[in-house]
Amino acid sequence: MADRMYTSKKTEEILDKLNFSTKLDFSTISRIAFCLALKNADKITLKSEDSAGKNLNRSSFFNDDELVMKTLLYSTYEKRFDDEDSTIRESVIKDHIDQGCLLLDQMFQESNQDTLSFFERLYSELSFDAKQKNKTSANDLLRIQLGINDTNGTNLIIDLNNTQKHVNSHLAIVGKPGGGKTQFLLKILSDIRKQSKFKTNFIIFDYKGDVSQNKEFISVANADVYRLPHQHIPVNPFVMSDYSENSILLSAREKTESFASIDKHFGPVQKGHLTEIIKKGYKARSQLNVKYPDFKEICYIAEDDYAEEDKKRDTLMEILKDLAQFHLFWQHGDLDDPIKSIAAKTIVIDLHELPVLKQLVAYLVIERLYKEMAVLPDSKTKDGYREIRTILVIDEAHNYLSQKNPFLEKIVREGRSKGIAVFFASQSLNDYDQPSFDFKELLEFTFIFQCEGVSSKSVQDLLACSPKLAKELQTEIAKIKKFHVISKSLVDGEEITKFEIIPFYQAYQNGDYLQ
Hints:
The chain is an alpha/beta fold.
């Protein structure tokens, strides 16, 4: 039996990086990686052909636990690898180290390469309480403490994903700046990340920069931040699962819908022109290994078309040039790899310094999320609690609600069964009063901070209360104290619920949850 095992080259790089950052020796990191791969055996693809990396001393790796490790393999796969040739057995162990190191590296990146956050994440990932084995897990139950009930002083808690209590998990947070709206949103998102053991993700569009600049929140949520236009989002909007003629046509048409959503002057002629340009982009790559174009290539094609037809530059051409020149999305030649699934990532997209195309950037990401959602199986439900895969957070929602974007509307309408929730944050109740799509009807939770100029009809619809009470609340809503909220009824016997929130900065101090 060989005295050494050889990892992949990628594993060697990860081991060196984690050894430097954590001060753990290579054998310890490899053993952790092995266990992590076993724990995620249903999510990984075994077999790594690359053995050009670090050589690990076999006795140091197993230490005195060889029998235990072989038993773990047998318990996971219900197969005795002792019955196999020794070469096969060592290969299986090497495969688990390679796969586990990839998972460790992902966790390290999602922890913003902060060692303490990484260890906390690792502990939560590998810890197991046998007493909880047959009970609803943390990822199944998202129980969020909102604040203190004004009526009786008790803790106000919601089971966000309880299908027996709630139709969906969509919510709206409404209020003037300075009332506590953002602090409330960050507290809820942080609770969800912690309680789900970081398995429930979110995507948030940050219009003011206050979310991305909140280092405490970014650390607690283990979020990746992309600051436009200084960075690009590692997403290519043209990626598809297949590149048949019909799929390409559909992709082109979907892009035209996103473009049209932000500009009422974007008419049928420009839609048709953009569709043809995008089709040419895919055709130019049809014989290459990578089948999808990027906005830089699409812009070049458009410039050639405009020159050939002696066509004056219009809105379409300006948008394409801005997308290419600002390099807002992943392009061929970028050193980073494009994200395969944005639904599997926790992302803050900082738009506050982007001078143009803020809404289009958001819509292209929303379109991508919808396309991912459409092919996902229904999310799992256990003991009445539905798994939430990701949350789309729409800050400054007034920029979106009136735009008639089909992808946002479909996510709101169809997201429940797929485990996709939408959180809106806006300044006025009236923003949700849209004739083309009834957002109010599909919002399960509504939290109202201080607002001015609200209509009694909006109050009635969003709080699901009587017309008389809605009329009375109009004046009260304009005078609500900071950190105080009026919401839909969250307590049996109450027509509405009033409470004082727990702000993020109070709940989380130095990364610790103080609830």
